[in-house]
Request: fold
Amino acid sequence: MSSDRIVIVDFGSQVTQLIARRVRESGVYCEIVPVGQADARLPDLAPRGVILSGGPASAADPDAPQVPEAVLALGVPVLGICYGQQALCVRLGGAVEGGHAREFGRATLEVTAPCTLFDGVWPVGRHAQVWMSHGDRVTRLPDGFRAVAVSDGAPFAVIADDRRHHYGVQFHPEVVHTPDGAALLAAFTRGVCGLAGTWTMAAFRDQAIADLRRQIGAGRVVCGLSGGVDSAVTALLLHEAIGDQLTCIFVDTGLLRTGEAAEVVDVFRGHYNIPLIHHDAAALFLSRLAGVTDPETKRKAIGAAFIEVFEHQAATIGGARFLAQGTLYPDVIESVSATGGPSVTIKSHHNVGGLPARMGLDLVEPLRMLFKDEVRALGRALDLPEAFVGRHPFPGPGLAIRIPGEVTPERLDTLRRADAIYLDELRTAGLYDAIWQAFAVLLPVRTVGVMGDGRSYDNALALRAVTSIDGMTADFYPFDMAFLGRVATRIINEVPGINRVTYDVTSKPPGTIEWE
Ligand code: XMP
Reply:
């Protein structure tokens, strides 16, 4: 990647990824660096500008994380957001106080002075809606700064030092509730930092191929193919980069949906001339899951079984040195705290947090800096068939994380049958493409029912369907009741062992998309 980039220093905000998304949408490449790693990494990354994220700490607390020295040493423009603004002020000699009434939610800000950050976005006198979420606030500006916008709760809602190109905003420009936020971030990255805004997926593809050639040299690579868009794009990139040094492996974990294994292998072999091993490892995965009920233990057991299979397969194809995975940026971010980042670990995604510390293969993860919608765009740039590009995501741990409690062959069979009916009805209703992901969850709960003249005492099943842009946040899909009724009737009639169907109306947050 060229140095035409922005670095976002992460102070642990839950919405730091959104800053990255907004910046990339403006055609500017960016990376997130945890605050603790900034001093070590910034000199090499040599960004053209730095954004300081929000965070849960209080800048008034002397032990709170500070703006790393490397940020100021670069001499490039800096934009502090919320905690980032406050930390910047404290670092440069201003003051921040806690204990003010919390300002949370929509607020109106008034632009009081011209500022480069507002060029083409806000004229002086504009009243604009912004999203605030803070308890502390700046009470004294450092030398060289002036206030250029105010709000009721924040007299220093936007501050600027035009000489050093340091800016601070108390509100969150990255969230959709700040309607002009994306334009402001683009004014910073393009207007203030002078970046061209020409970063595209075609540019990414060429750069990624060159990087892969450099990393891999003459080595052999195994790539796990799951049938999802991520692993398919990973395989295609590698195929273009290193040709027949690549072997793909499709591991049938026994945790897949009906017909999935055959479908994936057929489509992939039909379209591409890439060596593909179809390995049936159902017995291994099921034995490792016997008696396991804790979600994190399940995920780790599955991650370990995957690596075992790949190491073994790598040895059989004549000494592969590398394992390629379709790890995405959200996986990296959501699993990062285990290795020192400040955000909380939500789940160990099997392809990141679940890896054993000692593994005999080096990882190749060409998508680890991309969001899902960017991977789909990259897939199109690589001419991947739309059937792959548009597939709903399916997690590596498969149906195991859709069976709370112990995973058994019988439960897998029941879930498969219900899930197939649900997806069939979705396709028939023409709803598949409107939905990010839809699946059934087999609940470890038995309920009483009446079927025919008899009493039943069978399992309950939950249906889930969400819309999302990147899986980081999601809304439940508002089906009409007739559709849900149709699916429920078919499942209860056709799948022995299920006598009740519910619909999950939880968004993310506070829920996650998968149940485990
Ligand atoms: P959650 O449940 O964390 O899921 O809201 C967000 C998205 O990620 C998928 N997911 C995974 N994908 N390995 C994967 O490859 C995993 O371990 C994993 N866990 C969740 C999930 O299906 C959703 O699309």
